[in-house]
Structures are given as structure tokens and as C-alpha cells.
Amino acid sequence: MAKIDISGIYKIFGPNPKRHLQAVKKGLSKDDLLADSGHTLGLQDVNLSIEEGELFVIMGLSGSGKSTLIRHINRLIDPTSGSIRIDGENVLNLRQDELIQLRRHKMSMVFQRFALFPHKTVLDNVAYGLTIQGIDKKNARVIANDWLEQVGLQGFGDQHPHELSGGMQQRVGLARALATNPDILLMDEAFSALDPLIRKEMQDLLMKLQQQLHKTIVFITHDLDEALRLGNRIAILKDGALVQQGDPQDILLSPQNDYVADFVKDVNRGKVLKAHHVLAKPVSTLNTDTTVTKARDWMMRHGFDYATVLEGNYLKGIVTLSNLHAATQETLRESVSPVSSVLESADLESLMPRMIRDTAPIAVTTDTGEFVGWVSRSKVIRLISPAQAVDREASLTEPVE
Amino acid sequence: MAFPEILDARSLRQGIDGFVNQLVIDYADSLERLSQPLLTFLVSVEQLLRNSPWYLVIAALAVVAWFGSRRWTLVVGVTLLMLFIGIIGQWDRGMQTLALMIVALIMCLVVGIPVGVLMSLSERFRKIALPILDVMQTMPSFVYLIPVVMLFGLGKVPALIATIVYAVPPLIRLTDLGIRLVDHSVMEAATAFGATRRQKLLGVQLPLALPNIMAGINQTTMMALSMVVVASMIGARGLGQEVLAGINRLEVGRGLLAGLAIVALAILFDRVTQAYGKRLQYPKQGDK
Question: Fewer beta carbons below 10 Å: N end or C end of chain A?
């Protein structure tokens, strides 16, 4: 069961939204609706299911309805039609007091403009959700202080929000949201108001915290780089409708339409794509126990200059034909020359310097060191700059393939 | 050309007069009884101020000024103003006026803030209340002084009521405004964390509206002071009465000294409430 299940959400803003719902469902466009009736179409037929523990990014430009959508989850905004289920329960059926309980315990929110309480100290801001629950001030402050430390603001508790910089204020916002220990964290353009360096710092902080906490996070942003960096999955919203959803690589490698393609055009692909996207599987591999003569014959028969040598599932290195000709031992073990390797989760950008520095093949391994393949140079070039790579591909030689 | 007579103004006037007379016959006694606690309160404040040694009163006001502003200059200023009132021989009357001001202000707070809050919460109530406030502020006070005197008799209570009617509108307006001006995103945050309406009002809206409410209190005190002379016509004693006597007897000096004492009180109230309001102001977010 999905943690958050949004299905068939329509939102029409205006004095009489219900009356225009049918027309919109039949396909009346946003512009026509506005021209005909003065109603604004906020969301149309949005379906999303967000799994427990994932960081789900909803991306779109301003006016795409992303902030409207996230406010449906804690019902700061009610939909015109559709359902929102959290842990299987339709939150639209909740009474006011049940809704308040849901907001107090199950979810919390981080805001673009921080929305801290200017009249409360930093510590009391963080403790707000707890005091609202009825926890006495003293205990709430102890918990709040803990969270202040987690976000790196120990010692700032007695100050007021306006005394802190933007980045620090949003750390307070994050601590305030986490202090109630909710399952779900709603982050509405949480880092958009921060300058790039601070934003990156906050993204790192969020990822670090998420590794320990495993919250279900719904993160809104208009910044694709941020979306690709943070998201386990990404949904792209345009004019209130979902255009595409998938994992970051999906979005980047197979955009479903021109809108998404246009979006991803200028993205730094080197940061998003990983070594496992540019993998070349070796045709066949040798083992350290193989005899030199057998290996040499096999390679000459197939016309290989190199061959991959494994020991079990682990990479030992490569052998070259010339090495084998000079070999004195019976098995390959002594003739193997070591190669450098990268993890399959390494991003392409970190790979580039090595590829440029020397021409030796680079192996790709899993986190536990098992061999999965080689870095394909032509694939790297094709993925990083798709347009230029096509005609040059033919002339490139692959080290091992 | 004369405007055609549509209503008989004479009988309309008589109708209103008859209504008020009936009101007086039916309710004057019970109203006077009901207002008794108010009178007791006012009299005890007055007694306290008049019977305390002058230096204790000045010291108490200095302490209030200190807690309001945390500035020594203001404490010194308040002390000097009070000394001035004493030196020009207006101390006792000044205390009577001060008592009226304090009680009027307290009553304004009791009435004004809840009404202001209600206005901010209910659009319908606001629509009804706004024109009433307009009338209260623009209607010449003598017009309602007459029925008030008829209902309550001459004396301190009608003076107090007239003062409240005249002075409370700015406090109501600014309470309403202050709550409406509270940052929408901050309110949204409170809602998102599961605050009830009551928690939002007491924990967020009122504290954040406080600077505006203080501005309202400041305006209300100023307007209350400007009613002093009018109030003295219907039996409030104090500085206003002295001004009135000065006018009646064509004694410029008498009127001027009492008038200066009123000005001194006005400056004192104004500076203390303003300084306190300023201290409550929080810098907006993102100003950094």
C-alpha cells in the first residue's frame, strides 16, 4: 500500500468550481475555462502514489500547480474532486478534529519563505508543533533542542528568527518540521529562496537526515537540478497536469514529450547519470585459474587484445596478449595487470577526469566489489552530449568489448 | 427653491424624543444600578491617586514608563511632566483626570479588543460594525451626551461612557487590522502543524497584532484625553472642569494652566504607549 495515494484530483479555483467540473473532465482547457467563466484550473486529473520512505519530487514551473498539489496532502486546500489517501485512509472524509490530529502527528511542512513565528525564539519555533500537541513547554524544549543540534544550530535557541540568515532560518524550519517526528514531510520549495551555495548545503543536510530517518518526503521544486539530485522519483507538472513521472534517469534519458525534453536539455547530465548507465558488458571473461595457453589461444581466435580476468565474482584485472606471450607461469594469475575501478553509483562527472587522464579501461563494480562491466567511452559521450556524439561514434574504438 | 417636505421633521423629532423619554422612564433606574460597579471602580482609582503622596504617584508612573520603553530618557521625561503638572498647581485635578483616563482606557480594552477580534474573524460582523464605528467617530459627542445624561444622570458615569464611545473605535479598527495583517504564510504554518482556531488566535494572531493594537491603544488614549473638557460639562471633575471654568469666567490664565496640564498628560500617555508599541515590533522575515 502506498503511503500517500492521490487519485483523480481536480482543483478549480473560483466562485462555483463544481459547476465547471464536468466540462473540465471532458477536456476543457485551462485557458478556455478562464475565458468562459473566470475560473482557474489548478489541477487536472492528478494521480500519484508515493511510497513509504521515498523522497518524491514534484517539479514544475511557477503556475504549474505544484504548491497547490502539496497543500492537498495536508488539506490546506481541498480538491474539487478526487481522493487523497494516507496509509489507506481518505483524508477528505476526516472531521475537523481528526484532521487536526493528522496534521499534528503524521505530517509536517517546510515552507518556501520559512514562515517562522517572528515573536517566538528559535527554540520555541522548533518546539511549536510539540506545544500545539499539548506537550508541556519544558519537555518540548528538550526535544526541540535536540533537533536544533541535528540541523547544526546548537546555541542559537535563544535568538529570534530575524537574527538568523536565510539558510539558518530554513534549518529552523526543517527542525520545526522534524521535531514532531512525523511520517511525512511536505517541503514546499523549501530551498528555493536560498542562494546556490546554501541551497546545496541544505540539500546535503536533507539527504544526510533522510539516510537516518527514512521519512516519506514530498519535495516541491522548480529547479530540475535539485529535483534530479534529491529525488528517488520525480513527477513533472505542467498547467496542473502530470506530464511524466519516473526516476531521475528515466526523465533524463527518455523524456516523454517535448516539454520534458526541453526541460532536461540544459541539465548537467554528468551529475545525474551514474556509471551503471554507461556500462559495457565484456563478451566473455577469463578466470585466474585459466591456463596461459588456453587463454592465449582463445584471445587470438577472437582477435582480442585484452581480456577481463575475474576471481569468482570479483575483478582481478586484465591480461593483454603481449603479457601472455611473455608469461612463464602456467595460470593467468601472475600475468594479470591491475586496473582502476569505480562504483556503479559514481556519477559520470567524477569519472571524466580519469577517462581523460589515461586511456586505460575503467572497471565498474558494485558496492561490495563485484565486477559488473567496463565504462564505455562512447556511451559516456553519447549520454552527456547526445547531439554531438552521433556522427563521431563510429570512429571511436572501444578498449574492451 | 425649498426641498419638498416628504417627512414631517417635527413629528419625527418628537417621535425620537418620545422614544428616549420612554427609555428613560423604563430603564434609567436599572441602568444607574447597573453602572454602580463602574462608578465604584472609578471612585476607588480616583481616591487612590488623590490620596497617595505625589512622589509615590510619580515614582509609579516612572516605573511604568521604564517597563514600557526601557529608556531612561523617557523615565526622566515622564517625571518632569508630572512635576510640571504639580508645579503649575494642577496636581489634584490632574489626578482626577488621570483616574478617568485610566478607567476609560481599561474599559476600552475590555470592549475594544474582543470586538476587534470578532471583526477580523467574521466578514459579516465586520460589515455591520464598520458603519457603526464611523457613526461613533463622526457624530458630534453632544448629540449622544444628552440621552446618556438622561439615562445615567449627571456625574462621572455618563462622562466615562461618553469618553468610551468616542475613544474606542480606533482600538477596534487597529485590532481588526493588526490581526488581518498577520503574515498569511505564518498562519498557514500554524494550520499545517495542527493548531486549533483558538491556538492560532492566542498563540500567533494576537501576539503578532500587538504592535498595531498598541497603536490603537495610543490613539484611544489621545481621543479620550480630548474628551476631557466635554466630559466635564456633564459632571466629570478634573482638568476639563477648570478649562470650562476659565471659559465661563473669561479667565485665560485659569484655562491655559489646566490646558497645559492636559497637554502634559497627553504627551506622557502618547510617548509611553508609543515606545511600548515600538518595542513590540518584530522585523519582518527576510529583511535580513
Answer: N
Taking the C-alpha atoms of residue B15 and residue B21, their distance in angstroms, rounded to an integer, is: 10
- Domain boundaries, position B205: 27-285
What CATH number did the domain enclosing B44 receive? Answer: 1.10.3720.10
The proportion of chain B whose per-residue pLDDT surpasses 90, expressed as a percent, equals 65
| Cell numbers placing A245 | 513521472
Mutate to test the interface with B, among A91, A112, A117 (most CBs of B within 10 A): A117
Residue B260 lies in a domain: yes
What is the per-residue pLDDT for A399? 47
ipTM score above 0.85: no
In tens, the pLDDT along A276-315 reads 788 888 777 888 888 888 888 888 888 888 788 888 888 8
- Nearest chain A residue to B211 by CA distance is A119
**Mean pLDDT value of segment A351-377:** 83
Minimum distance, in Å, between the CA of residue A78 and any CA atom of chain B:
13
Residue numbers in B near A165 (CB within 8 A) = 288
Count: domains in chain B: 1
Name which of A128, A168, A172, A178 to mutate to probe chain B: the one with the most chain B Cβ atoms within 10 A of its Cβ: A128
Q: Which residues of chain A make contact with B194, given a CB cutoff of 8 A?
A: 100-105, 129, 132-133
pLDDT at B96 > cutoff 50: yes
Confirm whether B15 is domain-assigned.
no
> Residue A390: is its pLDDT beyond 50?
no
Give me the residue label for grid cell 497637554: B263
Alpha carbon A148 to its chain centroid, in Å, reads 25
Q: Contact B193/A119, CB-based, under 8 Å?
A: no
- What mean pLDDT is predicted for residues B135-150? 86
The count of CB pairs under 8 A between chains A and B is: 82
Greater model confidence, B113 or A382: B113
What mean pLDDT comes out for the span B122-132?
94
CB contact under 8 A, A119 and B284: no
- Cα–Cα–Cα angle for A341, A346, A348, nearest 5°? 100
Classify residue B16: in a domain, yes or no. Answer: no
Give pTM, 2 decimals.
Answer: 0.78
